[in-house]
Amino acid sequence: xxxxxxxxxxxxxxxxxEIDEAIAHVIDNTSFILGKEVSDxxxxxSRYVGVQHTISCxxxxxxxxxxxxxxxxxxxxxxITTPFTFFATAEVIALVGATPVFVDxxxxxxxxxxxRIAKKITKRTKAIIPVDIFGQVADFDEIIxxxxxxxxxxxxxxxxxxxxxxxxxxxxxxxxxxxxxxxxAKPLGCFGDGGAVFLNNDELASRVRAIMNHGQTKRYVHxxxxxxxxxxxxxxxxxxxxxxxxDKELIERTRIAKRYREELRDIKEVILPVVLxxxxxxxxxxxxxxxxxxxFIAYMQGKGIPTAIHYPIPLYRQEAFSYLNCNTEDFPVTExxxxxxxxxxxxxxxxxxxxxxxxxxxxxxxxx
Length: 368
Ligand SMILES: *Cc1c(COP(=O)(O)O)cnc(C)c1O
Prior knowledge:
single chain; two-stranded antiparallel sheet; binds pyridoxal-5'-phosphate
């Protein structure tokens, strides 16, 4: 059997009976839109993350878009974020008509470098969107201190970090509002697209919930412009089933990451991911840096080992953002990391045998 980059098939085989029953139940009672599983999931997620309100929605991108709409981010506003993330983080800023302002990342965690944020704040800055890249929460205390002293909002992009812990708090509970994704490849994925918004403010939560469903407060009563951003009941049922196993999966992911570290740490060409002492990572990716990435990937491919690049192109280099006229010299760390980063297979279902093959291949390649 070929090694899977993320082994969703083994995961499904393991939980098949439970998930199939949960899906069949939704089909049986035809409660496809906003069925009971959706509100059950929202309550379960609120308890898990430690927030007052969860509003489930149709994707991580929509979660961010709805959050920005609810916070009334608009044309003329600037929103600070990282250029080393999935496109959606900055895409939604542009979608509401605001301007993304990129700040370089830390060389160790690849999260936004909080020491560089203050320089980019102007009178137009309305919010910061830190991304918990690869499953590790960004430097929230520092970011919130900067935000508070400048009266700007913080929106946590926790698309990759659901379940991670930062100084005793769960990812998704930091900042004014937080968003996550249940895209299948994320640490907690559904069987299609899905996402959620987390927050503690009652009034803002009502606004988010309305925007998620056409700005509707009562049936056919629309208090504002919104979107069709609902999570399917079938996806909620899948997530409720998978959540029962999630903490156990996180333990597995941590164990697999620990083994990668232990068995790769003496290879001088390989730079391992850094997780700081005051937080955990859920390892949405286990990404290393290598000096000769193209050759490394080709070698691994020859050995039947899939790899992926998260991310090959910094957002300020994307054609869609060419109008921002960013200066690449402002981003020395992002420039370097985008050229050298490569992600190894990671999931709770990566077998010991397959991990041995991956580790042996890397050691062989570098003659270690
Ligand atoms: C995946 C991801 C998103 C978008 O989530 P979707 O569910 O795919 O729309 C946003 N931000 C980050 C950092 C992501 O990794």
